[in-house]
Protein: Probable potassium transport system protein Kup
Amino acid sequence: MTAQSTAVPAGPGLAPPTNDPRRTSAGGATRLALVVGALGIVYGDIGTSPIYALQTIFNPADPHPVPVTIDNVYGIISLIFWSLMLIVTIFYVGFAMRTDNDGEGGIMALITLIRRHSEGRGRKTGFFLAGLGIFGAALFLGDSMITPAISVLSAVEGIKTVNPDLETFIIPATAVIIVLLFAFQRKGTAVIGRWFGPIMIAWFTALAVLGLGGITRNPEILRALSPTYAIDFLFGHFHIAFFALAAVILTFTGAEALYADMGHFGRKPISRAWLFMVFPALLLNYMGQGALILDDTGNISGSFFLLAPEWGRIPLLVLAATATVIASQAVISGAFSVAAQASELGYLPRLRVAHTSEHHYGQIYVPWINWLLMVSVLTLVFAFRTSESLAFAYGMAVIGTIVIVTILFLYLARKRWNTPLWILASGGGLLLAINVTFLAASSTKIVHGAWLPLLIGLTAFTVMITWKRGRQVVSDERERREGPLREFVEKMRRGEPKAAQVPGTGVYLGRGKDTAPLALRAALELNHARYAQTIVLAVQTEPVPRVPDEERIVVDDLGDCQDSVIHVTARFGYAETPDVPRALRLVSPAQAEGRKLRLEKATYFLSTIQLRCGPEPTMATWRKHLFIATSHITSDAAEHFQLPRDRTIIVGSHIEV
Structure:
């Protein structure tokens, strides 16, 4: 187990490499390509909400139905517009996306920033907010299970508008699409990813055209742009509007993706795509559906597909199904990223991560997460069976994450930018009050399905904080057993214990430069042998996405530049896969006090730990068993650190937790 330092602020030079495409000046074609890429990856979730959002709001089977009246339709459309404006456009695009961790966004980036800015008296607050952020990340994993289920299911349900007799095929067809979607993940998105953008351009164009067609039937729906309709509906019909807010949340699901995927495309391309295409297309479509419902209340069921003429419904069904697959792909990729970053930050075991593209660092595949998501999504489809039923559960995870992101952002706005308190209390307080109102409305659906994302989130949160705590317990015990590294090296120099020197280079992976790796102790105390050149290596994860090669390596001669033992720290960002052999090749003779490392046939030593449940009161017994069970999904260390299999030796020991 290697050291993963997440609390130490990055040095001033820790920034993405200068060849990072997001950091270089881009021409018009490159900027356009980034905008198109953002349309394909970022906006799939929020872009497919029109398929099911309005019919869910006016669903008569809802526990708190919204009656279909002229005033209510105007009020709902106005609420949708101003929710998208305030939460997505103003908060996420206008403010949150300006808070980044060296180009990376999302809740995990906020957690690392909070740790960096909560030293001294703010340490307890920072610790609490970091825990809150981890719960938000756990809710996002719940969202990652519900989004593919509701998106694909709602699109396939369009079959009913084409031919009601085909309704029995909805569940089987949905299941087949989902299985194929997850089976394809190991191939990566590099092959079809180039088609995501153009397909989503066609999708948003279709949304806008269909919406305009609906608006022409009843142009008076444009009056809903006035905030007075939202205010009148909310305060004049509060007993209806409050419960309706839980369904209005469905119109901005996927808002977090704008922020979380900022590291892939940059802030400006994502913002431009939202302002100039996505937002107008969504608004036109919602207004077109509203106009259609005003014409005939019977259009509530399937109002999205009914916007299209009969001859266009089958092509629209195919396009909708494709768009929902892309939406699912985006949220699955987000789950992979969150899980991988949580692992690097020490909240999950080391996971096997496969990079599916040589050119895009964000395209990764995490097998364990993939199959867990697939089983969960299929279970949701067969358990809930309709998109309306799933919608009751959907909003809680979304708004819970948004509320947490808002709280973390406001804290950083004060700590990082020294924003005056009166601005935070007025503007930030209003925004937080709006989000909390949405959260309160969503909580009314707990008994109707909203308990599900909470249960998923609480389960994932419990696993993550238990792993973090158990990992600390194991680290403390290892530190006690390993003992001080400098003291051990000093004994080696004095010939204690006596050991024969063998030719070659031995690389011993440890947790830091303060303690001696267990494998190194075993080599000398049990085998009585030492290599002519001994390297003690610590892999350190920095709280930045990537570390440039020129800052990758730190060498310590351990007090005697003439000795054959040196300590090397290899630093990686949390978005990188550690490649130990490559990192060691970056050590120059100047860094190693004139010594040239002979790495061609170096032997690598790993210390592995077998865990047992002990009597010490380090954690509750059930948490000990959970920690040990979670440890079984830990990926192979040799594979994780890219070590050569034929030159890697593993030394084991037991530790009680």
